[in-house]
Specification:
The chain is built from 6 helices and 28 strands. It is mainly β. The protein has 2 domains: 60 residues, Serine Threonine Protein Phosphatase 5, Tetratricopeptide repeat, CATH 1.25.40.10; 273 residues, 6 Propeller (Neuraminidase), CATH 2.120.10.30. The strands form 7 sheets. Strands 1-28-27-26 form a 4-stranded antiparallel beta sheet. The protein has a 4-stranded antiparallel beta sheet with strand order 2-3-4-5, with no helix packed on it. A 4-stranded antiparallel beta sheet has the order 6-7-8-9, with no helix packed on it. A hairpin with a 4-residue loop joins strand 8 and strand 9. About 2% of the residues have low confidence.
Length: 456
């Protein structure tokens, strides 16, 4: 067995395949032989033979370490094919369904499926393993979010207003839409002239909170729209760029990013400057700066109890270009509302992104790259070779949930039940599939067999 593993490490994969097939023919060390043979076939792109080897392996007892090795290859459970370009997964509040967008036709005629193609909105039912199309892919749709009761879906959509208009893409201005999922009826709430971003429902489901650039305004503001009468209330005036709103569970507090100073001394204030993070009490109309713009602070999110705020902060020139920019690694920080101070949970030694709380508020899930090996693909795709990790609120007990060995990841969405994370993921030779991983357990043999079968 050691000889075959050595051949694999030397990248002599064909020799390793011959070696492991020889062991199987002689019925020696069968579990390890099937496992390593499957890995060899996977590395050479022979997926059918890889699946056959792994399925044969499941006839024998398997260790947790072996299961984790297989999960590195299957990338846990595939929900939507990696032939498509999937994006923006979002859970329903009961954790049973996932809404996402998927480009399945080359609508921009560039010969491939990519994020700039028009994409439909789909809902995947995790309990029945079924998928239904909700919004047509004649439009470029983004960022679907469920209402708290699961009966409605809000989303952004860019559409051709006139026949002569170009095909919409991800760079187009998007309008705000809402669909009644029971009736299948859609309503446009705001047209594309408002340039809406970052939509979320209020916790009672009566309002939509979002940032947008109103027609005639150069900076974004944060608004609340009452869904009963369609009136809009300004939560944060558009004096400065303000985005990424997150509402506390009580509905009384709002946290967001805002760009308010020319921190890079180029004579203008815009999103190339550092952003601070602000906490607004919507009852008292008071505001507090909880992360000053001496650093670049982004993507704030409230804890489930509304007491703490999680955010990313770039504070060092980690890429060595002489500047601190969004290309530098960010640490993950938590602002404690009781102590009125912050602490670093995950250092900026490695790349971090997409941090969020588990539903009990005791742990965080985040995208990162903690592997020290050199990865050539990183220059090709910003999120290539990034895995998904979990740790407690003090940065202890770090566990890798989704491996970064063969796949890149982005957009992890945490189940409200705390049992799953859904994410977009891909290999060098695939498009962006939609996958689901367990946060608290390893799969059963039955589940693993199904996931091996779906490997593509």
């Amino acid at each position: 067995m050691a000889k075959g593993v050595k051949l694999m490490r030397q990248e002599r994969i064909n020799d390793a395949i011959s070696f492991f097939n020889g062991l199987i023919a002689r019925k020696k060390s069968l579990p390890d032989a099937y496992y390593n043979l499957g890995k060899c076939y996977f590395k050479t792109g022979m997926l059918r033979k890889a699946k056959e080897a792994f399925l044969a392996l499941l006839s024998y007892p398997v260790t947790d370490e072996t299961v984790r090795g297989i999960l590195e290859i299957t990338n846990w459970r595939m929900l939507a094919s990696n032939r498509y370009c999937n994006n923006w997964p979002s859970f329903s509040c009961d954790g049973s369904k996932v809404a996402f967008v998927s480009a399945r036709r080359d609508t921009n005629g560039n010969g491939k499926l990519d994020p700039d193609d028009c994409c439909g909105i789909y809902i995947y039912d995790l309990e029945s393993d079924t998928e239904i199309a909700i919004v047509d892919d004649d439009f470029h749709n983004m960022m679907p979010v469920f209402s708290p009761d699961g009966g409605r879906l809000a989303y952004l959509s860019a559409r051709k207003e006139r026949v002569s208009d170009p095909m919409p893409g991800q760079g187009s201005a998007h309008g705000l839409y809402i669909m009644n999922l029971d009736a299948g009826t859609e309503e446009k709430l705001l047209d594309s002239s408002f340039k809406v971003k970052h939509v979320t429902f209020s916790n009672n489901g009566e309002n939509l909170i979002f940032s947008c650039w109103r027609p005639g305004h150069d900076t974004s503001a944060i608004y609340s729209m009452n869904l009963a009468n369609r009136t809009m209330e300004i939560l944060v005036p558009g004096v400065h760029e303000s985005t990424f709103p997150s509402v506390a569970a009580s509905g009384n507090k709002l946290v967001y990013s805002s760009w308010r100073r020319d921190t890079n001394d180029d004579g203008v204030i815009n999103i190339r400057d550092n952003s601070g993070i602000y906490l607004r009490d919507m009852r008292l109309s008071t505001e507090q700066n909880i992360a000053p713009d001496i650093y670049n602070n982004t993507f704030p999110v409230f804890s489930p109890n509304g007491y703490d705020v999680l955010f990313l902060s770039a504070r060092r020139d980690t890429d060595g270009d002489g500047r601190i920019t969004s290309q530098d690694n960010s640490g993950i920080y938590l602002w404690d509302s009781v102590l009125k101070q912050e602490r670093c949970i995950v250092s900026d030694r490695f790349y971090n992104k997409f941090a969020g709380f588990t539903p009990d508020g005791k742990e965080i899930v985040f995208l990162s790259h903690w592997c020290t090996r050199k990865c050539k693909a990183e220059a090709v795709d910003y999120f290539q070779n990034k895995g998904i990790y979990l740790c407690n609120l003090y940065g202890k007990g770090v566990r890798q949930i989704v491996s970064d060995k063969f796949y890149g990841c982005r957009c992890p969405a945490i189940s409200p039940k705390g049992d799953f994370v859904v994410y977009v993921s891909w290999r060098n030779d695939t498009n962006r599939g939609l996958y689901c991983a367990c946060l608290k357990r390893l799969p059963s043999k039955k589940e693993l067999r199904e996931w091996i079968d779906s490997l593509q």
